Amino acid sequence: MAKMTMVQALNLALQQEMEKDDRVIVLGEDVGLDGGVFRVTDGLIQRFGDQRVLDTPLAESAIVGMSIGMAAYGLRPVCEMQFSGFSYHGFHQLENHAARLRRRSQGRFQVPMVLRAPYGGGVRALEHHSESREAYWAHTPGLKMVIPSGPRNARALLVAAIRDPDPVIFYESKALYRAFREEVPEEEEVLPIGRPQIALEGRDITLIAYGAMLRPTLEAADELSRQDGLAAEVIDLLTLSPLDDRLLAESVQKTGRAVVIHEAQRSFGPGAEIVSRLVEKAFYFLEAPIERVTGYDLIIPLFSQEKIFIPSVERIVRAARKTFNTKAG
Fold this sequence. Notes:
This protein is α/β, with parallel strands linked by helices.
């Protein structure tokens, strides 16, 4: 198997799905001749032509609106927002139409579209280029919210998203685009949407993360093993909506302790929902209060303080030690 970056793996997914299904269309700002701002769509216009790879105006609402219309009438559009912070201009299209059309039409229309959006900090970009607003989309009924954590699962999840009959918001961490390589099979590989995975098995404490936060969480698990003798179980969510909490509850029932890690702001963030689910389904197994390690409740700062905002290995380790050394009640 070839070793690929996330950019290359996503490009492979798009290329193979476009080859298999001529209904798959790619559209967005600079996705054609320039190959996308991060080069995820590089080479697609040369391979498939400008009728299937569409360079659009700088108009996010129009991009999303066109995608909804294409999807409703039989195509499978994959539209790109250059940065997730620009997708708010298409929010009314997504919330009012993409998310509701199947129900509104009593199943007569489906909206099999994907909205790809680079999210998160770690690359020294400006505030609208560095946000983690996944809670907006996970909170919206009718939308699916997927966030891969590496090249291989990014490729497999994007294939699943393109084939899904419902609209999928697909967040891609900019910090992970070229951070590392993984072996990615040339043959088809699909991961089901809505199913988390155990990234590391353990018995003492459950660490729950997704997207860019999986790597520091795994590093924290390694440090806890070396310095504290703790075997942490690390769960990669992969999908925020629909959120399958069975694996999370089973893990906490085994370990008795949990830490939830995400880059988004703390208040009303995805971690709050995860904690609530665990309290509902694993309360009597908890040996200590659940900890959260998150971004802070402020607009993500600029370059010099960006690292302070983003959860670090040290913060994750500190939270794990705190919950391990605290007794419930």
